[in-house]
Amino acid sequence: MNVHHLELFYYVAKHGGVSAAARQIPYGIQQPAISAQILQLEDSLGLTLFQRRPFQLSAEGQMLFEHIEPFFNGLGSLEQRLRGGAETRLRIATPEIVQREYLPELLSRMRKRVPQFHFTLMNGRQAEIEARLLAQEADLGLSLITDKPTVGMNTRELQRMTMVLLVPEKSRIKCMADVLGMDRIGLPLITLGSREALPRVFGDELRTRGVDWLPTLELGGLDLVAKYVAQGFGIGLSMHVPRMKLPAGIREVPLDDFPMIPFCALWMGRLTPLGESFLEESRTLAVELFG
């Protein structure tokens, strides 16, 4: 018998069906794949392990479940014992801006809360983070969310981010209407790269309003966007990040009537107590920063 097939059967039997199992398995696998592998298990045994609709274990399925249940139920506690106690390590995937502006304070708080807290960091945008979670290379991700998450991916919104324009202090631009009211927007626009969430949401909103304003400069970070604005190279697209200090001579123009971008935690399966503690600290810090 294939051990992976037994693991899938364990989740199906425990949660009462294939669709319920797909929501609980702590890695990415779709219902058709689960069904196909359960059929392979049944074929190898020459038995039907459960009735599909309504779900009910057969006598042989019940016998198999009772035999494997203690093993799979005990894996979590075994992992903790092998690690020397409670789980203290978290693998976190985030974009660069989150690593720079948000994580240092958050990780410091986690070390005060869990003295033996250890972590590894991986860089990536939403799609890359989801791929790492599905491959079980990461335990939890923090990211701006612009695309519908993968089926089965858990998300928890921590905050909504406001887009802003960065303009010279002496600029006459007081709100986005001052820009949109121009016959032709000739101002150079400085943004992050086109793959980033911020310029994508901004560009989508402009298109819904029938406005063309294409980026002139695409840079690698919000700090660079601010520096180029300070040097007089154009108008910057950024987000309001409370602790990010702007260069002298520029100010923010909030885009209050533009969509806000959700900042969320992402994970697969069921979070460990350590993961829940991390999310609790994440939410607390987000509220302190943004209100």
Give me the CATH fold name of the largest domain: D-Maltodextrin-Binding Protein, domain 2
Number of domains: 3
User: Which stretches of 5+ consecutive residues score pLDDT under 50?
Assistant: none
Rg value? 25 Å
From the spread of the alpha carbons, the general shape counts as: elongated
CATH C-level category of the largest domain: Alpha Beta
Tell me the strand order in the biggest sheet. 4-3-5-12-6
Look at the helices and sheets and give the structural class: alpha/beta
Distance between the termini: 54 Å
By CATH, the architecture of the largest domain is named: 3-Layer(aba) Sandwich
What's the CATH superfamily of the largest domain, by name?
Answer: Periplasmic binding protein-like II
- Given the structure, what is the number of helices? 12
Strand composition percent: 15-25%
Helical residue percent?
40-55%
Largest sheet: 5 strands, mixed
